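Protocol step 4 of 5: obtain the predicted structure for the target chain.
Materials: sequence only (see below). No template structures provided, no constraints applied. The aim of this step is simply to have a reference model before the mutagenesis design in step 5. Sequence pasted as it appears in the construct record:
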Amino acid sequence: TQVFGKTLHLLTKGVGQYVQESYDSIALFLCVHLVWRFKDMCHQQKDVNAHDRYWDSLHGLLWPRLQIVIKLNVQSVKDCDPQKMKIMDLRPHYVTRRYAEFSTAFISINEKFPENNLNAILLDMEQEIGNFIMKMASSFQQRKEQLIFVINNYDIILSIMSEKTSGESKEAEFFRTQFSARTSEYVEVILQPHFGELISFVKEAESQKQGSGTASRSPEYIGRIIVGFNSRWKNSLDAVNKEVLSSFPNFKNGTEILQTALTQFVQYYHRFHKIVSGLNPNECSPPNRDQLINIHQLMVEVKKYKPNF
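Step 4 output (structure tokens):
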């Protein structure tokens, strides 16, 4: 203290003046980490504790300012008005990309030398960006468009996080869960216009004990489903393929969603085939049961849409 006291006081004062005028949260967080690492280096390599007061005083200047600046960022996202943003298409919004790059910078810096207090701050930002994406999605009228917009925005966040970090953060896990849920819903929505009757019948029949619910549907109704499916299922697969791939700018993401949709389609048809094949001929015998498409034939056609990477 006798040797360095005045110098350290001058340095602390200079840092304090600069920090109070700074709005660069990433730079502030880098400085926080530098302070931690210098202090840790002094302890581990040289067993020097004399500078602890200096390191602690710097941390006391940097950390409160960092919290204030991040809260300002969070508030700016919270205050966004969808009506003023003029959402023009379904691609990822630029605010979402900025958030992804912003939060990923903190996560990557924090991975090797964790600061637990940071998690609470990032959680607030994560919740607000999730709300922001939902508010932006509400600008679209159709549920399908809303889901595409949400999926594209979650995808850009996950892509940037996986590229810059280990991808195992709590933030990544949250968005991965949301992405999976919205993708599942989108798959149901995209299949509905093409195979809605078949899907509804399967769900209705399976909701009844041991398939007894099929009694509420006449053999003629089931026969119409079979005829209608046989006449358009190949064209419907083409339409689903084109619509999915054109909706997602990330080709890898689009192909994965397409494969999920096709898998779901096969599962629905397999369940439909099983229900119809198991009907008692004396109680309910659809006139077109012998025209059911073979599962193997269906799989051969579906495999044509598998991407070749």
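Step 4 remarks: The chain has a mean pLDDT of 87. The chain has eleven helices and no strands.
Proceed to step 5.
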